[in-house]
Amino acid sequence: MQENPSVQASTVTAHADKVPVPQKLAYGLGTFHDMWGHWLYPNIGFQVFNIFLGVAPWLIGVALFANRVFDAIADPLFGWLSDNTRTRWGRRRPYILIAGVIGGLCFPLLVAVGPGWGTTTIFGREISNYFWFMIGSSALFLPIMSAFKVPYDCMGAEMTPDYNERTSVWSFRNGVQKFAELGLFFGAQFMTMAVWVGATNENVWARIKQLLTSATAWKAAPEGTLPNILLGAQVYCTVLGVLMAIASVVMFFTIRERYYGNLASKQDKVKLIDTLGMTLKCRPFRMQLLMKMPYAMGTSMVGALGYYDTVYYVCRGNLGEGAVWNFRMGIAGMVFGFLGIPVFSYIARRLGKRHGVMAVLIAALFVFAATWWLYNPDIKWLQIFATGLIAFTGAGFWMLDGAIGGDVIDYDELETGKRREGAFTACGSWIMKVGMALGAGASGVILSVTGFDAALGGGQTEHTLFMIRFLLAVVPIAGILLALVMIYFFPLTPEKMAEIRQQLEVRRGKV
Questions:
Q1: What is the pLDDT of residues 170-194, one digit of tens each?
Q2: What's in the keyword line of the UniProt record (predicted)?
Q3: Neighbour count for residue 253 (Cβ, 10 Å)
């Protein structure tokens, strides 16, 4: 396609293209499932299964790799199914309701274990039975999350045809996501509070009552005590699961599928083979994948190291103090993430999404380099800026990546004549999750390479602490540099998208 120089991009969104604020906010509620259903488990997996239950870090890494693979297998299926679904409620909303409610109610089952499960001997090696539980529970739960997440992500490209309004939709989504991310950080503190010291299944209801009636129950566990992290995780996941189910119901009754009635409901159904093969023929889509995969892999490979850096380097092995700081850092992440959204949204509106992403990545290079100095046992509050600034850039990156997705699908519609949001979402998700599975799996290996030994507590070697700090900075920087190269050559500028929209509306009318 040749660019038409007479078509000019506009920074003003037509009234008909704007999405009502209640719909944007409701769409953001789906991040509860994304953050908690997908990412809480990797966050608390090491605390519950390594620190409390004693599972080897490399086994947890393998389990996290496996659960991303299960996730990736299910994504193409539900992308294909949702593209081909025809109901009075649309293509996506039925999945958001049914899978969202079921997923929320099943969420606590991921930590439905008890002490003393023992081991199984395989080829002369003792393998913890908790490892097999992690594999099995993920294989059952994550396809439910895929049934929700793929149709949910599709909605982000279907709510408006406007280049800049898509950035606004994803700004609201990422703004709500900051509250969900707070749930990730608070989990560590919740599971190590004083109320869980001496807690058992027999007295759990009494402990829950303490949480509702006593402020002291929310304090960190005293130094030298070991709270029942497992029981705390079970209660926490139950509360979050209920919120996930409620969010699904609200979304179903609030958001609308703009492209369904006049366009998608009338098009031919998409073949399953198109979900992966045909989408990869789209050049802007390939470039988008090659941009975000190294960023995501680089950050996921060291995802657990930030927690270990706080607890074992800054706080010298004090789990309670580390959890308190982790929560404070979560607050900082929420605040700085909120600040990042309007900053990078403004840059994208003024200069285009491509330049907005470039600004994000350049800022992220400096942030990860600075973590070497921001995690400091002598000035503990500096680590708040480490997490805050990572969240500042991360919010901008994922907001703009999501907004770019709708532009890629418009490009594909002009080429193929079909709206295939499910195919693109599923294909992108499949490739990303395989990559992130490798990253998550490598996280356990990386932790083992550092020489970390949970039995040593705060007595980790200087070499271990050095490697944790070094890898936390270097691995993400390598990924960011690769992402920067890819986005530099990305072709969908504001002018190009204005031309594409004009051609689409001449062909099939407005939506």
A1: 999 988 988 888 888 788 889 989 9
A2: Cell membrane, Membrane, Transmembrane, Transmembrane helix, Transport
A3: 9
